[in-house]
Write a structure and sequence with these properties.
By secondary structure, the protein is α/β, with parallel strands linked by helices. The chain is built from 14 helices and 23 strands.
Length: 447
């Protein structure tokens, strides 16, 4: 909320802000994008690689030299997989040489909060904490104690103290915050956050922090821009139910020759003329009533994939292609392409990064290829199926069965893993070429 509020305030003052989100999250970038009016880009060292994160930041922040760049961290400042912290938010801050504005939860401490800030300062990788915002402050007395202690013992200015505000809370559910598309009056909510942050924070001093970051190298190693004579139409389910797409994935498909055709699975009753289909993640469980009764689209998807049309499905897309999904106390019939009946459980069935190794050749991935992905799902198949062939062995994570991920059926690939195109530069090219080859074979057969 602090990040959204800072962006909203600056934009209201006519100051452009480019946002970035550290980590693999899809939902926070939606809020940051709406606040800034610009696409938000993920920076994830695990999925993309450290060098690629730096290149992405340079590419996407250098489009407008008068634009401020705000990077929102994930988890705690020093949380990460590697003991050295290179993949933490602090590691990204060191990589990009950016100062840190530390937001701390004030609710359960007073002067002792300075010890926490001192620990953040001392722990490697060492970052420059240029300011602190006290968040959810309970009283003026508590704020004064915390501010005095931090400024005395940490030598860091406290640039804001935001009181508890029960009205400025985004509802949460099993996968995190509610999405922008499902939040009524999201724009007004963001505006109120901007007003609230500006009311309790020194926005002039916060703005000055952006200019404390030194210049970075300007050479960008961009591997995403390609030219090709291959042209295909790829449909993309994109609506409130299917909304988890990294912008670079869509761009990579376009750069490799795909004309993207967006499809509203909640409204459209049939597929347009397309050569391939991309079904991303999201919250199909929240819309199973509508999805399961849209018989026309379910039938068309089933028939097109059965006839050989290439399709790539991630998480929510995988669920859509199964026989059924049980959510709450109801069971819903779905596309019926995969021999799974999906159930949702109280605790995550898979949560975190995936290490995958391809055990076979397909139109999507070659044998032996190693892929890094991310999964976060409360659903799983009720039972394994002996009918399935799988692309990947799971080295780390859960995937579909705990041992395998990436089910293959005809020209369909369906996985619980979300991949990032920057970390998997062959993915988009393979997708487009696969769709093109199948289209060409069909044309020859028709003749």
């Amino acid at each position: 909320m602090v990040s959204v509020g800072i962006i909203s305030h600056f934009v209201s003052q006519g100051i452009a802000v480019q946002s970035f989100k550290k980590g693999p999250d899809f939902i926070d970038p939606m809020w940051l994008s709406l606040a800034s009016g610009r696409e938000c880009y993920n920076l994830d060292p695990y999925l993309m690689g450290i060098e690629a994160c730096c290149d992405s930041f340079l590419k996407n922040s250098s489009k407008d030299h008068n634009c401020l760049s705000l990077l929102e961290g994930n988890h705690g400042l020093h949380d990460g997989m590697d003991l050295d912290g290179s993949d933490s938010s602090a590691g990204v801050a060191v990589m990009l040489k950016t100062p840190v504005l530390l937001v701390v939860d004030s609710r359960h401490s007073n002067r002792g909060i300075a010890a926490m800030v001192m620990g953040m300062q001392a722990m490697p990788p060492r970052v420059t904490i240029a300011g602190v915002i006290l968040n959810q402050v309970r009283s003026l007395r508590q704020m004064e104690k915390q501010k005095s202690a931090i400024e005395k013992f940490c030598n860091v200015p406290v640039l804001g103290a935001i009181p508890v505000d029960k009205e400025l809370v985004i509802a949460e559910r099993h996968l995190g915050l509610t999405t922008v598309g499902e939040t009524e009056n999201a724009e007004q909510f963001i505006q109120r956050a901007g007003e609230r942050v500006a009311q309790y924070c020194d926005m002039k001093r916060i703005r000055s922090l952006f200019y404390e970051a030194p210049a970075l190298r300007t050479k960008i190693i961009d591997k995403s821009e390609t030219t090709t004579d291959v042209k295909v139409k790829i449909g993309v389910f994109k609506d409130a139910a299917f909304c988890f797409y990294y912008p670079e994935n869509l761009s990579a498909l376009g750069n490799n020759g795909a004309d993207l055709v967006f499809i509203d699975s909640l409204q459209e009753s049939s597929l347009p003329e397309i050569d391939g289909l991309y079904l991303g993640g999201g919250f199909p469980e929240s819309f199973l009533d509508v999805l399961s009764t849209n018989i026309g689209l379910l039938k068309d998807v089933h028939e097109k994939i059965e006839s050989g049309m290439p399709a790539y499905a991630e998480c929510g897309g995988l669920i859509y292609l199964c026989r059924s999904a049980s959510y709450g106390d109801k069971t819903y019939s779905l596309a019926g392409l995969l021999p799974f009946d999906i159930v949702f459980q109280r605790n995550p069935a898979g949560h975190g990064y995936l290490d995958l190794q391809s055990g076979t050749d397909s139109g999507w991935f070659k044998k032996g290829v190693q892929v890094k992905a991310h999964e976060f799902h409360y659903s799983k198949p009720l039972a394994e199926s002996s009918e399935c062939a799988y692309q990947f062995d799971v080295i780390r994570g859960n995937g579909i069965t705990g041992k395998h991920d990436g089910v293959l059926y005809r020209n369909l690939f369906a996985s619980y893993g979300h991949i990032h195109a920057i970390g998997n530069p062959e993915w988009a090219k393979n997708f487009v070429c696969f769709a093109y080859d199948i289209k060409a074979k069909r044309s020859v057969a028709a003749i």
